[in-house]
Amino acid sequence: MHHILEQVATGEYEEAVSPAPDITALLCVAQERNLAASRLPYHKVPLADLEPVSGALLADAADWIHRMVAEGRRVLVFSSRGTSRPPSVVIAYLCLHLGCSFGEALQRVARRQPSILLLPGLAASIDEIGAGRSRQGRPPE
User: Fold this and answer.
1) CATH homologous superfamily of domain 2-135?
2) What is the pLDDT of residue 137?
3) Full 3-state SS string of the chain
4) What is the b/e burial string over 14-49, where b = at least 16 CB atoms within 10 angstroms of the residue's CB?
5) pTM above 0.85?
6) pLDDT at site 123
7) Is 47 within 8 Å of 85 (Cβ atoms)?
8) Which of 112, 120, 75, 115 is nearest to 93 (CA)?
């Protein structure tokens, strides 16, 4: 598990099955994985590994992290191996909700999790979401 922020970590499926005591919410971003019965708040956003990510799915994941953090929860964002989808989603969260530029968000995540693979088109999807929210007059949360 990699603690990217105090309240947001990335990891792999096995770490979500038996989460660390400080984890209080679970976000599955693996299309191929499910948790049968979680005692913690749980949300699934089905992303395919190493395929371009839909803006709607990426926004759903980033917004859910934001809601959990606002409630004071510590979120584990996980997939099968935890190397591409979780860090990509956390980068989107940093950009869309904490006001980081893409480069700044990438650096923050890579400092805590050096071995990452970004989902194809991630920066463009984040830009698309941000532009759509600006057109709607919706400020970043």
Assistant:
1) Protein tyrosine phosphatase superfamily (3.90.190.10)
2) 63
3) CEEEECCEEEEEHHHHHCCCCCCCEEEECCCCCCCCCCCCCEEECCCCCCCCCCHHHHHHHHHHHHHHHHCCCCEEEEECCCCCHHHHHHHHHHHHHHCCCHHHHHHHHHHHCCCCCCCCCHHHHHHHHHHHHHHCCCCCC
4) ebbeebeeebbbbbbbbbebebeeeebeebbbebeb
5) yes
6) 96
7) yes
8) 75
